Amino acid sequence: MSVRIDGEKSDEVPERSRVVRRILRGPRPEAVPTLIARACTLVGVLDIAAGVFPRFRHSRMHRMAEVLPGSFGPFAAALSLSAGVLLLLLAHGLRRRKRRAWRAAVLLLPAGAVSEYVYRHSLVGVLIAVALLVPLLRHRGEFAALPDPRSRWRALANFILMGAGSVGLGLVIVSVHSHRMVGDPSLSDRLEHVLYGLFGFEGPVDYTGNTSWTVGFSLGALGLITAITTIYLAFRPEHPAAQLTEEDEERLRALLDKHGSRDSLGHFALRRDKAVVFSPSGKAAVTYRVVSGVMLASGDPIGDVEAWPGAIERFMDEARAHSWTPAVVGCSETGGEVWTRETGLDALELGDEAVVDVKDFSLSGRAMRNVRQMVKRIERAGYETRVRRIRDLGEGELERIRRAAEDWRGTDTERGFSMALGRVGDPADGDCLIATAHKADAEAGPYGDLKAVLHFVPWGTDGASLDLMRRDRSADPGMNELLIVAALQAAPKFGIEHVSLNFAMFRSALARGEKIGAGPVLRAWRGLLVFLSRWFQIESLYKFNAKFQPRWEPRFMVYASTRDLPRIGFAVMQAEGFVNLALPRVLRRTSRAPRPCAHGVAERGVRTPSRA
Q1: Residue 114 in 3-state DSSP?
Q2: Is the whole model's pTM more than 0.85, yes or no?
Q3: Burial of 113 (0-12, 13-18, 19+ CB in 10 A)
Q4: Rounded (10°) angle between helices 479-490 and 369-380
Q5: What positions does the domain Phosphatidylglycerol lysyltransferase C-terminal occupy (predicted)?
Q6: CA 490 to chain centre
Q7: I want to staple 314 with a disulfide (CB 3.0 to 4.6 A). Which of 38, 277, 414, 485 is the partner?
């Protein structure tokens, strides 16, 4: 809903209209799909149990099945096992209201019910399947979510995971009939039998009676499911993740030109692996990326604050259409208030951003003694610094800096999402600052006298935000401190009044936990953070930032439900590059062809880790 002010469309939604709209929508439609998904999981487990642990009861149908040619038992066991495995795979899609998962479940449930009755003669199993089928049909309108971004590389992951699961379940199937085994086959024999059976061949293990047929058909069914699902994922149409188009980037840059000084993370919205939704008037936008079913936005919305509600509404509509879990990481206090007010989501403080006011920065005083001594020592060792705009560098020097930044990266995986631009030296980013450290008398390396690089993105017209820090591992310690001091001292000639440094997660807990009088809970929480700092640089980033005597600006995460926090946290770690589920570099496809930037020069695809 929108109103007009002075003849111009606005995205500010009156509170009364917003409340009425929420009432008309009714409660969030998550309870029914979740319950059906859980019931689907239960039925899948029962179907698998029916195929793996058969318990025939004496009945006329059983006695008839024993004398009929071929017997129904082995086929029904395989069908029950197949239906159970597929229902387990579909449960996650049903919980997320996916239409294709609903269609497949509607077909599989009757098949599972038939196999339950034919193989086990279980009326209870049939009734459970029917009891789940009825609400599926009744609430079919709830399952209308669109597909997720996907690629054919998921086929390989499916083959590996399904293959491992089939081998494990196959060992259970082979071993559960131990009383009918001929002899005493070893574990290696049973594993060999499973591997042969998955491909439809007879293995070394033999059974008395018709058990060999039952085991053989069950193993063959597992192998067939693995093959079918892998082939389906390999040949289904791709739905690649949305990317920032040239038109989107131009519109975002126009918004940043007007409102970029409001948020230090605004320029990071120009990462080209993000997608964007605009408000109806085009005065505000939210950029995001979908990671493991989480629609993850970062920082505050871009643009006019009065137009934020319209952009947030579009963001939530997109999340509902695909049944993605909405989340925001790294928003400011103002942004968190708007997000929670407009959506009913909750907010959690993540940490603090270190911001240095240039006019108040000085190396004098006892508090700056360590930084001052380190900088003087490095300068005496023969290092010099240069601070320039990207547009003032030649292409040859830019290329050298790009290659050095790539080579000096400390991890195989690129890191950064919420506070990283993802490129260095693009002509469209000519206002970015770059600080470099050089040592003229050093032994010439592949990058000449270059020893360290810091890259800053614009924060409006009078600010800068630290993007990345890279240094030669053979250089003297303190390169980052040297370049930050150089950038702060050179800031006035570029018209820069404040500089945003690294983000320190859980800074307040670390700071309060080490003070006298801290309680046992706070000390324990700080101890856990210090332990986790061995892998995630939590304490080291806080202490590094604190050297420069910054002011601390809190940053928040916005989320829908407490039960979503583990999933959102995992998605954030994937987006930031701390958890990598991608294929090894040698197996990855080459990236898509670089698209021209705003100035006609192709994007080089240099991606950078987060600030530290």
Answers
A1: helix
A2: no
A3: buried
A4: 100
A5: 253-559
A6: 37
A7: 277
